[in-house]
Structure formats: C-alpha cells, structure tokens
Design a protein that fits this description.
By secondary structure, the protein is α/β, with parallel strands linked by helices. The chain folds into 2 domains: about 70 residues, Alpha-Beta Plaits; about 150 residues, Rossmann fold, CATH 3.40.50.150. About 30% of the residues lie in helices and about 30% in strands. The strands form 3 sheets. Strands 10-9-8-11-12-14-13 form a 7-stranded mixed β-sheet, sandwiched between helices. It has a 4-stranded antiparallel β-sheet with strand order 2-3-1-4. Strands 5-6-7 form a 3-stranded mixed β-sheet, covered by helices on one side. Helix 7 links the parallel strand 11 and strand 12. Helix 7 packs parallel to helix 8. The chain starts with a strand and ends with a strand.
Length: about 280
C-alpha cells in the first residue's frame, strides 16, 4: 500500500507545530516527521481525500505557512524511512521497546522487539508511551483485552506479557495487520488474535474487560459506541491519540455510554485517559 507524503514548510521558531499536527490528524494523517523548516505528514493513499487539501491549505494560508507539496511514497521507500535510525525506548525503567538490531536488556521486566516498518506504535510518540505507562500501572492478569488500532501491536504484546488471558488486536491498515502478526511471532506471543478491519468488526468480540484505543480524536468520538457495547460493566477503556484540550470532548461522549473518567496523563500536550464502565 502506498502512502501520501504531505510536506508543510514552517518558519523558524514556529510555535504551533502541535496544533498543525492535530489538524492533520483530524484528516486522517497518522505519522509525522518534524524537520527544521518543515513538517512532513503521512496518510495511507486509500484514505486520502483530496477535498481535505482545501481545508488544510486554508489553514496554511491563515498561519502564513509555505505552500504544500504532495508526493506518493511507495511501500519500499516508506519502509526504509522507518527502519533507519530507529532508537530503542525505555518506559518507567520497566518496559524496553527495541528493534531486532538493538542489544537486549534481560534484567528489565518487559522487553518487546518491534520491526517498525510503517505501522504506528513504536513507543517513541507520547501517546504510545503514555499507554504503555498506564498498562504497566494496572492489572491485566486473566483479562480479556482488545487493542483497537493496534499499529505495530506493541500494546497488545505488552498486555499479553502482563498476563492477559486473550488479546484481540484490530487495525484497518494492511501494513499494521501484517506488522502486528510479525511482531507477535517475534515476541513468542501465542494468545493475540490479529484481525484486519475497522470498528465494524468489534461486534464479533464480546465480554471484554479492557480496551486499548490509541487512535485519534475524531475516530474515538465516532466509534465510541462500538467500544462501549462489548465492554463488561466494571471494565476499562484506555484512550489516547488526542490533545489535552480535547479530553473534555472525549469525556462528554464517553459519558453517553456509561463511561466515567477515572485517570488521565499528559505529556507534551498529548493526553491519555482511563474510563470505567459503570453499572447500569
């Protein structure tokens, strides 16, 4: 699958890069590369809507940014970008996420090997790091877990390592689906079921006790009902992929489905939140 690369020139000392990223995320862009004088955003070609460019271009003009440049990135090129200069990450001194070419750390609690390719979820982004932090802090033993929008599968793998009974990992992107399968095998995980699809396939999963959804604000709001329905009373949903100032919108929509905010984290203006499904 090809990706669309959109390059937005930005002036030196531009302070609203995070707002620009949030704007692009709302249109489905899911990976970003910040350079000195530009922001590069990526979106699967199959999800790219040309009409969105009008809104993006209008925002660019209001912000007095440079003209957009659009380029189709073949799979091979994208893969090379992700696999080059990929650093390892350690979260809370308990979870070590690395590529196969990094040295192992056998003394750490949870070591996850990821072949990143072009799937989101390498633990470098604040949202993934916060989701890992929340998983580390909570009990997953014998739980039935769903990882929605699994990306590399790193969250599903960690949930399994923490003792989850079963984990269902779902992603609409073919590369993410294949990458999760690869990473599950690479980490010798046997209880993760990987499914390609969107929110519509969640109806086939029930009696969930924990749901992990690190996606983006618009998708979370749109698909909230699909997440809440299979979640057992007393179960938990971990959300991320949105900015701190969007938490109130997430909380308001979640309340419509009996979900109450019980914990949240912030990192560099990104947010992660834990909701509990109340008894009806």
């Amino acid at each position: 699958m090809n990706y669309i690369q959109t390059k937005v020139p930005i002036p030196e000392n531009y302070v609203d890069t995070e707002i620009l990223i949030a704007k692009l995320m709302s249109f489905g862009f899911d990976s970003f590369e910040e350079q000195t004088h530009s922001l590069i955003a990526y979106i699967p070609e199959c999800e790219f809507v040309k009409d969105y460019l009008l809104s993006i271009d209008h925002y660019r003009e209001c912000e007095k940014l440079g003209k957009l440049s659009i380029e189709v990135m073949p799979d091979k090129n994208w893969n090379e970008v992700w696999e080059s200069n990929y650093p390892s990450v350690t979260i809370d001194n308990r979870c070590y996420v690395r590529a196969s070419f990094h040295d192992s750390k056998p003394t750490i609690d949870y070591e996850i090997v990821i072949q990143p390719k072009m799937a989101f979820g390498t633990a470098h982004h604040e949202t993934t790091a916060m989701m890992i932090q929340l998983i580390l802090e909570n009990d997953f033993a014998n739980k039935k877990v769903l990882d929605m929008g699994c990306g590399t599968g790193v969250l599903a793998i960690l949930a399994s390592m923490k003792g989850a009974e079963t984990v269902t990992a779902i992603d609409i992107d073919q590369w993410s689906y294949e990458n999760t399968l690869e990473n599950v095998k690479l980490n010798n995980i046997t209880n993760v079921n990987v499914i390609k699809g969107g929110a519509e396939v969640v109806v086939d999963v029930d009696n969930l006790e924990i749901i992990l959804a690190n996606i983006n604000k618009n998708i979370l709001l749109q698909d909230m009902k699909y997440y809440a329905n299979p979640l057992l009373e007393g179960g938990y949903i971990y959300f991320s992929g949105f900015y701190s100032n969007d938490l109130s919108d997430i909380e308001a929509e979640a309340s419509n489905y009996g979900l109450r905010l019980i914990n949240n984290l912030e990192n560099n203006n990104w947010a992660a939140a834990v909701f509990k499904k109340l008894k009806s």
